Amino acid sequence: MAKAKKEKTQKSEVSLTKKVWNMANVLSSAGVGFTDYITQLTYILFLKMDNEREEIIGIPSTLPEGCRWNDLIKDKNGKEIIGEDLINKYEKILDTLKNKDGLVGAIFTKATNKISQASKLETLIDMVGAENWYLTEGDLKGAIYEEILERNGSDSKSGAGQYFTPRSLIQAMVDVVDPQVTETVADPACGTGGFLLAAFEHMKKQTNDQKKLTDLKTNKLSGADITPLVVTLASMNLYLHDIGSETTPIKCMDSLEKQPEHLVDVILANPPFGERPEGASDISAMRDDLIVATKNNQLNFLQHMMKMLKPKGRAGIVVPDNVLFEDGAGEKIRKELLANYNLHTILRLPSGIFYANGVKANVLFFENGSPTKEVWFYDYRIGIHHTLKRNKMTRENLQDFVDCYCSGHMQDRKETWSEEENPNGRWRKFKVEDILARDKTSLDIKWIKDDEEILPLDELLKGIDQSQAEISKATAILKDLLKDVKDDIAGENE
Predict the structure, then answer these.
(1) Range of 17's domain?
(2) What is this structure's pTM?
(3) Is residue 260 part of a domain?
(4) Model confidence pLDDT, tens digit, residues 27-56
(5) Can you list the positions of beta strands (E) in 276-382?
């Protein structure tokens, strides 16, 4: 019975996802880009689901009169609104809602209409109106929304992929960090809210106490992102899961510009890589609480999140490789992390799991308030080959790491590495003294032999192209040399 229900849900998800995706293609032909489409879908879907909650479940709408689903599709006489009248009505609703406070205001952050053709707007509204989104079984409604975003994540032109951390990685991180229903969880670079959603699902299973569950939905989760579009997507994503109240858990802000207002129990995050964007505020001029001034975005986020933790607070944070070995600011932060935080675990990730090609990252797991004695490394990189399409990383792929982590009983950890018996064991510990003795206090540690490393196909092809170019260049040089030799011989024979 459970299997049949799961298959039915999966079938419905595929069907609805396809429908939403096809709509993206329709609007694309009309000049509406993917991100604009998703934003408009978010607005319209919100209105529809608000209507469903009121009519089917009996939860009163918090939207002002004139700005609800029925106001969008029909006039005061019950006549269907079409053409330019629909465009005007839609834009009027957006103008009103974007000035609201709380969750509604967050969803409609800087809302504007991007669909200029009335016929296309009508088609989108008809598609949304034909489905019951709020009452879909399980997590279907949220899954559809995330899935359609993910499907376009590989399109570098849209920029959508930058907002995604693989769900399998998110789930594994949440499982080992194990946030409790009474704890506060934050993500200061939340993207579309993947970590917050996974934490919520994990925490709500821990109790049937309605007071605790209500508190979880309204007070325990918080996130921020600098991009208005992403704040809209995250807010809607949380709304689809009934998270949030009059005060939205998601803020549109640059988290790095000021010291944390509130300390939290748990941080789960994948902050943006690279340097601060051009034109962004100078963090060093605004913050005097950070360990070191730097323009490196991920180092700034790491410092910021270290400062966000309560005593005994814990974190799981995705960082690129350079955080493990970069000198200067990077080394100072690593030393601080080892001296005043318990950096107990590092998960080394392979390339091929993020939408940005060639990205190699790690997950740092640490706790505030006690010095590091030893760092456990799990190498899920050497000899591991994933792609986003043909060999996608699954939660099952990370189960061995989760088992080795021993969440809640880390004293029972046992190495799978052994110098003699298993030199390629993926789970190995290093004493902090040995790490501090390394050049630049580097955490970039490799011990597994990779004699038969197979590069991803795109890298192989790139290498072949490069080799061909080098061969062609060398051949041309050789031909010139041979010509010179022939000319010299001919000259000598004259």
Answers:
(1) 2-150
(2) 0.81
(3) yes
(4) 887 888 877 888 898 899 889 988 988 888
(5) 309-320, 341-348, 361-368, 374-379
